[in-house]
Amino acid sequence: MKPFSLETVLNYRQRLEDIAHNRFFKAxxxxxxxxxxLNQEQIKLDQLIEKSVQLQARGVAxxxxxxxxxxxxxxxxxxxxxxxxxxxKTMLMHKERDNLIxxxxxxxxxxxxxxxxxxxxxxxxxxxxAAMLDEIAIIRHxxxx
Length: 145
Hints:
It is a single chain. The chain has helices at 7-58, 62-144. By secondary structure, the protein is mainly α. Helix 1 runs antiparallel to helix 2.
């Protein structure tokens, strides 16, 4: 009797791997978006600090300087929040990458198992065929005598 076909299992494992790949790709994109936003906020902070220094050098009104300092503090708080979010996105991306690696290994193991099973089946059929040919040869040889 032919052994259980692993095609259905392999198809299922392939779908799981594809889903894991898509989730990893999405996590990687989300992380890149947050990283880009962090870079923009850091550039904005640098510009605010530079502008504040220039205004101080020119001797501008204290209210204007206070407004810039408030903006700088707010921007620094935004950067801290974005860094926290970036860390979360990075952790999620690593989790999804590990999941993808696990799914890929599972599928590869199932493929090797299928190949081994098919090879064992071929060997079994070859042995059966050899036994039948031996039996036919014995019957023919026995009939001639």
